[in-house]
Amino acid sequence: MTVTAFRPRPEPDEVAARVTATAAELLEVLWGRASTAPASASQLRVMLVLEHHEGINLRTLADSLASTPPSTSRLCDRLQAAGFVERVVSPADRREVRLYLSGRGHAFLSDLRVRRERALQAVLDQMPTAGRIALVQGLEAFCDAASARIHDDADVSGGRTA
């Protein structure tokens, strides 16, 4: 798959439509080769949220996944049965359950990242040095802009994230 040439200063809609979307799709295909089995894509999302927000309750997790508490609870049931998630009663309120990624869950994510990095490394090894440098600079600028956008969206929504 090739990406068409750009004018010297491409407009944001050109970048989004032509390059970013294509790159995201190709990255998804590459990462898809590093199987997430035995976890489904939805379960993987739960694990990634818990990795960054350990100890959150079910309602907060459901909100962050834009899901319902019953659906999220079923995902957590399956993850707990697989040994990836632990539920702990909150010391402050015994009616509340806190969710944590287990040691096995952390190991699974670490292994998945290693496999994904290997797949990505094989592609990066084929790129010329100048292309890799430009990619890093572009991705750093993208991350800065995306972080600012997420922060601004959180401020507008009163701290709620979807």
Task: Label this structure with key terms.
about 160 residues, mainly alpha, three-stranded antiparallel beta sheet
What would a concise description of this structure say?
The chain is mainly alpha-helical.
Structural account:
The model has no long low-confidence stretch (mean pLDDT 85). The chain is mainly α and 162 residues long. Strands 1-3-2 form a three-stranded antiparallel β-sheet. α1 crosses α5 (103-124). The protein starts with 11 loop residues before the first helix and ends in a 6-residue tail after the last helix. The protein is globular and about 60 Å long. 64% of the residues lie in helices and 7% in strands. It has helices at residues 12-32, 41-52, 58-64, 69-81, 103-124, 129-156, and strands at residues 56-57, 85-89, 97-101.
SSE order and pairing:
Layout: H1 12-32, H2 41-52, E1 56-57, H3 58-64, H4 69-81, E2 85-89, E3 97-101, H5 103-124, H6 129-156
Antiparallel strand pairs: 1-3, 2-3
Largest sheet, if any? 3 strands, antiparallel
What is the end-to-end distance?
Answer: 33 Å
Number of helices: 6
Helix percent band: 55-70%
Mean pLDDT: 85
Note the overall shape. Answer: globular
The number of distinct β-strands equals: 3
Strand content: 5-15%
H/E series? HHEHHEEHH
User: How are strands sequenced across the largest beta sheet?
Assistant: 1-3-2
The stretches of 5 or more residues where confidence is low (pLDDT under 50) are none
What Rg is obtained from the alpha carbons, in whole angstroms? 19 Å
- What structural category arises from helix and sheet content? mainly alpha
